[in-house]
Amino acid sequence: MASPTHAMDLQLARKAAGDPRALNEVGERLYPEVYQTVYMLVGSHQDASDVAQTCLLQVLESLGKYRGDGPLAAWAGRLTYRVAMRQMKRIRAGYRTVVPVAHEPGQKMAGSGSTVNRARLREWLAGHLAKLPPERRETVVLHHVYGYTMNEIGDLMHVSPNTAKSRHNQAIQDLRASVARDGATAETMLEGIDD
After folding, report:
1. Which of 35, 43, 74, 152 could be cross-linked to 130 through a Cys-Cys bond (beta carbons 3.0 to 4.6 Å apart)?
2. Is the model's pLDDT at 190 over the cut of 90?
3. Domains delineated in the chain
């Protein structure tokens, strides 16, 4: 039985099938998460924007398949991942990771006072994530954003669970090293975060 929140999501998804305003509402609600997922996978704002639009269109076209068994955002996230991976295979031949410039050399990224803007923190972390090879980046996103186990990640990526775990462990080591090289900026970014 669907929870009240999932029932509301299901009702909205069904309404969106025949109501352009409801469809627009669903699109506006889901786009930030779709974009963030794609950006973490792709690592480039330009590529992420193009792929996220394709993913969002697929999500909106597939709303009739949503059954309310879980949150609409989680369902859209899984679909986004699959569509993004198909799109990335198409662009990967000419794919070049572009690392967004989170700050100018020598500048600290403090927000107002000691509180850091969470969006800026996500951007900073995504910049480090973008430095990873795609297959390692995917394991981090699947495990830490979507909560997939290594067995599930292996299935999704068509590799053994041990290969998925190895890629994930190497990705975490690479991320730690990347953040450590960022020195004072890393300390500045992390010190103002409220849990």
Report:
1. 43
2. no
3. 1-98 (1.10.1740.10), 105-195 (1.10.10.10)
